[in-house]
Write a structure and sequence with these properties.
By secondary structure, the chain is of the alpha/beta class. Helix 19 crosses helix 20 and helix 20 crosses helix 22. A seven-stranded parallel beta sheet has the order 3-4-2-5-6-1-7, with helices on both faces. Strands 8-13-12-9-11-10 form a six-stranded parallel beta sheet, with helices on both faces. The protein is globular, with a radius of gyration of 26 Å. Bound molecules: adenosine-5'-diphosphate and zinc ion (ZN). Adenosine-5'-diphosphate binds next to helix 3.
């Protein structure tokens, strides 16, 4: 193992976890590897084929990713190739089935469609491992579910004596369990590395989408790239990408653009220029994703809330891969949280829709939390964080003001309870603000004594208060299909029991910038 590492990769020692994982693969044990981006997962499936001189099969979701990897491996003198719909060279398959490659990449579609004679021929010469990269794509609970991945289980019965190795950089416990059962893994050896990226600063701010904010953002980014280094700006829509791109260009910044509606050639050119430091900023949708192997990105900005904490962790994690201090800023607006329908669009089963909703709600909680952001992310991945405060996120570095919100908290909680039916937050806020909409009149909510008592505050103000009450455990949210309802928790009920319309016990809550104006 060590000599392979030295000979082909030029490294003298394994990193944490690598050696154990490789040993287990050599003993033909199935493995699940969950380790942060940049921690050296690929090496775990690259070494065994070279050590035993038998082909390793690697399933990967994107042709462009496979092409990059094949090129890098070939430069190291490793016999690598890929099979996918865009592979037009017919001799690759023939060479592959006689075991002439050390590492053979395949798309999941190809692996399922290729005739079983291919596998039986290759099995005769021997297969060292069957690796599934980006294996979170198998799970409906993952942030990037792909149907083709789900069908890989068929191969388990064909590749009987071959160790299956599932790798991913992001998997909650639910996703890990799903991966293991989907691939029918037997007693897998599980490695879960730390998700903590200590050199990344995390910060979140609310914003109003539009040109005014973009002008401000462009000023900030210009200063940043001049003094510190390159930046990726992720947007949720192509329209936003184009608007920010144009403003940066007008400001004289060397900026690139990348999204799903550009043709492949222009996209690749844009990618290449950014990697080579000929562009300072890349404005992109999340189509600009896997395979960005640039170590010195210093900042990732999200213009709009991402669809899950997992996607946020992965997208923001593209900066600071070299270990040097880097920053991740997320700008959100309230309307981002109402995008569930948009994200649910391509999903049909109730389970899938619920998974999308729950992810989006978790992302929302990340935006609104007033405690340590790093701890939030680590908790989300089921990792115990060492400290309650990391000292390297906005909530740990800026001291938050707290205010007594007993009257306002009482109004909202009492309103929710007096409706006696589970509704969405907007309904309760409309009642407090004295709305006389059809829905409210039909349900006779205008007759409630609380109707109109909260009209001095805007509905966004009430939403911000509700977020604080949720995050402090007085209210709770429940998802059913694509609807989110809000109800009073037992902690909230306790508060209400000790309160009267003319007296409320103190209720101190952190004040966010949305609650100041
Ligand atoms: P991942 O697949 O987890 O994102 P990679 O396998 O791409 O990570 O590894 C990240 C970087 O670390 C690569 O440049 C790789 O060559 C390097 N690397 C991996 N293992 C070692 C090692 N044992 N010693 C030194 N560098 C390593
Ligand atoms: Zn922190």
């Amino acid at each position: 193992m060590e000599s392979v590492l030295k000979k082909y990769f030029g490294y003298s020692a394994f990193r944490e976890y690598q050696k154990e994982i490789i040993e287990k693969i050599l003993q033909k044990r199935d493995c699940l590897v969950v380790m942060a981006t940049g921690s050296g997962k690929s090496l775990c499936y690259q070494v065994p084929p070279l050590a035993v001189g038998k082909t390793g099969i690697v399933i990967s979701p994107l042709i462009s990713l496979m092409q990059d990897q094949v090129m890098t491996l070939k430069q190291r003198g490793i016999r690598a190739e890929y099979l996918g719909s865009s592979q037009t060279n017919p001799t690759v398959q023939i060479k592959a089935e006689s075991g002439q490659f050390d590492i053979l990449f395949m798309t999941p579609e190809k692996a399922c469609l290729i005739p079983s004679s291919f596998w039986s021929k290759l099995l005769k010469v021997g297969i060292s491992l069957f690796a599934v990269d980006e294996s979170h794509c198998i799970s409906e609970w993952g942030h990037n579910f792909r149907v083709e991945y789900k069908q890989l289980d068929k191969l388990r019965n064909i590749l009987l004596d071959v160790p299956f190795v599932a790798l991913t950089a992001t998997a909650t416990e639910k996703v890990q369990i799903d991966i293991i059962s989907s691939l029918k893994m037997k007693d897998p050896y599980i490695t879960i590395g730390s998700f903590d990226r200590g050199n990344l600063f995390y910060g979140v701010k609310p914003f109003n989408r539009g040109q005014l904010f973009i002008n401000e953002l462009v000023r900030e980014v210009s200063k940043f790239v001049a003094s510190t280094g390159s930046t990726i700006i992720y947007c949720t829509t192509i329209k936003d990408v184009e608007q920010i791109f144009k403003t940066l260009q007008d400001a004289g910044i060397k900026v690139g653009i990348y999204h799903g509606q550009m043709d492949n050639k222009t996209r690749e050119e844009s990618h290449r220029l950014f990697i080579r430091d000929e562009l300072q900023v890349m404005v992109a949708t999340i189509a600009f994703g896997m395979g960005i192997d640039k170590p010195n990105i210093r900042q990732v900005i999200h213009y709009g809330c991402p669809k899950s904490p997992e996607s946020y962790y992965q997208e923001s994690g593209r900066c600071g891969r070299d270990g040097i201090a880097s920053v991740c800023w997320l700008y959100y607006s309230r309307s981002d949280f109402a995008k569930a329908d948009f994200y649910c669009g391509e999903f049909t089963t109730p389970n899938q829709r619920r998974a999308v909703m729950e992810s989006l709600m978790a992302a929302q909680r990340y935006c609104l939390t007033t405690t340590c952001r790093r701890k939030f992310l680590l908790d989300h991945f089921g990792e115990k964080s060492a400290a309650d405060r990391c000292g390297n996120c906005d909530n740990c570095t800026v001291s938050k003001k707290e205010c007594d919100m007993s009257r306002e908290g009482f109004l909202l909680m009492a309103c929710i309870q007096s409706c006696r039916s589970k509704r969405g937050l907007n309904m309760y806020i409309d009642i407090l603000r004295g709305s006389r909409s059809r829905k409210i009149l039909d349900a006779q909510f205008d007759k409630l004594p609380l109707h109109g008592l909260g009209k001095d505050y805007s509905s966004n103000w009430w939403k911000a208060l509700a977020s604080q009450l949720i995050s402090c455990g007085y209210l709770m949210e429940t998802v059913s299909d694509v609807y989110v309802t809000v109800s009073v928790s037992s902690k909230g009920e306790q508060f209400l029991r000790s309160a009267r319309p003319d007296y409320q016990p103190p209720l101190f809550l952190p004040v966010t910038s949305e609650m100041v104006d």
